[in-house]
Amino acid sequence: MAGGWKKLTFVAFIFLLAIASGWMMVETAGKICFKQSRSFKGKCISNDECVKACDTDMWYDGFCSNGLCICTVIC
């Protein structure tokens, strides 16, 4: 019977670990970080040009806002 409890405890631990890691992924899935592009020069009027500059800066995406190129990344 002692071996049965060990197996049950191990299975319960793995189950709880799987649930906890799932919760952590859900918490971080929607967070986006923003940063002004360092490589973009001039006034930002084209999102396409901004996206290219953000790619150069090693960020995921970008958009123009008030003449600035703002880069985004999921953090």
From TrEMBL:
It holds the Pfam family Gamma-thionin. PROSITE patterns: GAMMA_THIONIN. The keyword Secreted does not apply. One of its GO terms (biological process) is defense response. Residues 1-22 form the signal peptide. Residues 31-75 form the Knottins-like domain. Keywords: Antimicrobial, Fungicide, Signal. This is Knottins-like domain-containing protein. The lineage of its organism: Eukaryota, Viridiplantae, Streptophyta, Embryophyta, Tracheophyta.
